[in-house]
Amino acid sequence: MEVIAVQKSALDGMKNDIKELLELTENATHKYTSIFKEEQWLDNQEVCLMMNITKRTLQSYKDKGILPYSKLNRKNYYKLSDVQALLEAGQPYNTNDNGFTYE
Q1: 1 lies in a domain?
Q2: Please, is 74 exposed, middle or buried when counting C-beta atoms within 10 Å of its C-beta (0-12, 13-18, 19+)?
Q3: How many whole angstroms separate alpha carbon 18 and alpha carbon 20?
Q4: Are residues 13 and 54 in the same domain?
Q5: Per the structure, how many domains does the chain have?
Q6: 49: pLDDT strictly greater than 90
Q7: Is 65 in the same domain as 19?
Q8: For residue range 56-89, what is the model confidence (pLDDT) as tens digits?
Q9: Is residue 15 part of a domain?
Q10: Is residue 13 in a domain?
């Protein structure tokens, strides 16, 4: 067994640093906890499966502002209520300038 002696002031300093880190972490997670508790969020795959669309169509919906999304850590999330509202309104179809519809 190895015993390491540390000055009390150094130990107290480390304790304070750890407490500060814990407080920062709690504050950061508290900020987003309420957002995720209020609403169910879906990722790209879940939205594509729910709407029966391709990832490219989903990207088109995002680009055109048809389906709002939020980005967290380089990943997109969609509110379930927004997806349901779009489904109830009827999914917009991809059309080109000639009026032809394609999927």
Answers
A1: no
A2: exposed
A3: 5
A4: no
A5: 2
A6: yes
A7: no
A8: 999 999 999 999 999 988 899 999 999 999 999 8
A9: yes
A10: yes
What's the rounded Cα separation, in Å, for the pair 88 and 74?
29
Is there a domain that residue 4 lies in?
no
- pLDDT tens figures, 5-18: 889 999 999 999 99
* pLDDT at residue 93 greater than cutoff 80: no
How crowded is residue 79: how many other Cβ atoms within 10 Å of its Cβ? 18
What range defines the domain where residue 89 resides? 39-94
Rounded CA-CA distance 64/93 in Å is 12
Sheet holding 75-79, edge to edge: 41-42, 75-79, 70-72
CB proximity list for 47: less than 8 A, separation 6 or greater: 53, 58, 67, 78, 83
> Exposed, middle or buried by CB within 10 Å (0-12, 13-18, 19+), for 64?
exposed
